[in-house]
Amino acid sequence: MILLSFDIEEFDVPAVEYGMPFSFEEQMDTSIRGTRTILSVLKNKHIKATFFCTANFAIHAPKIVQQIVAEGHELASHGYYHSSFKNEDYKKSKTELERIGNTKIKGFRMARMMPVNYELMQQAGYTYDSSLNPTFIPGRYNHLTSPKTVFSNPYVTILPSSVTPLVRFPLFWLSFHNIPLKLFKWLSQRTLAKHGYLNIYFHPWEFVSLHDATYGLPFYFKNKSGDKMVQELGSFIDFFKSKDVEFNTISHFLKHRKVLT
Ligand SMILES: [Zn+2]
C-alpha cells in the first residue's frame, strides 16, 4: 500500500526561511491553488490520500477543507499555525479541524517535522503521529537511530516517513524534486518490497510554479515545481497502480495493518 500525504498549510517558507516580503494572503493563495490541483490529480487517478492541515489554513479556507473530507480523503492535524507551536495547539488544532471538517481527527504531523510530545498528543486524543523522518537532513534533524517503519510507544502509533532500507535515503518531497523520476520509482519499489508500504509526503505549494523571483527560493526547492510535479506525481501513481499497488489513507492502513503483516 502507498500512503500519500499532503501538508496543507499557509506557505510561510519564503517569509520565514528566506526573508521575502510574502504576505499571508499570498501564502494562502499559493497553498489553496496547489491543494485544488492535488485534489484534481487524486480524483483523476481515483485514489485516496491524507491531508495534514493547519487550523490556520482551515479557518481561512474552510470550503477546500470540506471538499477534502467530502471526496473521501483523511483530514489530520498539522498544528495550529505553521510558524509557531504551543503545547495547547495539539488540542486546539484538533478541535478546530473537527469543527470545520466535521470529521474525526486521528493523526498529527508537526510543522517542519520538529520534535513532538507523544504524551500530550495522546491526551489531546490523537492515535497516531507522522512527524518522524528517520534519516539525517543537514541543518534540520538527525534520526538515523530511529525505527524506519511503523511502531508504537505507550502513547501513540508512529508512522515514519519512508526511507530506503539500507542507506536511509529519504523518499519525500525534496528528493522527488531533485532526483530523476525513474530513480525515485525504483527506490520506491525496492522500499515497498522490503517494508510492505510507503509513506510519502508533499505540500500544495510544490504544485504551483515557484520559479518566480518573488518567492526567493533556491533551485533545489523550486526544481520541478508546478506542472512538472503534476505530471510526475501522476506518472508515479500510474506506475504503481499498474502493479496493483493500492493507494489509501493512513488511518485505513493502520486499521488493516495487522491483516497485511
Ligand atoms: Zn508543514
Alpha-carbon distance between the two ends: 12 Å
Task: Tell me, rounded to a whole number, the average pLDDT.
Answer: 96
Structural category is: alpha/beta
Q: How large is the radius of gyration?
A: 17 Å
Helix content: 40-55%
Going by CATH, the architecture would be Alpha-Beta Barrel
Say what the CATH topology is: TIM Barrel
Based on CA inertia axes, which overall geometry fits? Answer: globular
At the first level of CATH, the class is Alpha Beta
Notes on the protein architecture:
The protein has helices at 13-18, 24-45, 55-60, 62-70, 89-101, 118-123, 173-178, 181-195, 219-222, 227-241, 250-260; strands at residues 2-8, 50-53, 74-77, 107-108, 128-129, 136-137, 141-142, 151-152, 157-158, 198-202. With 261 residues, it is of the alpha/beta class. The longest helix is centred in the N-terminal third of the chain and has 22 residues, at 24-45. It is globular and about 40 Å long. The structure holds zinc ion (ZN). Zinc ion binds at residues 7, 9, 78, 82, 111.
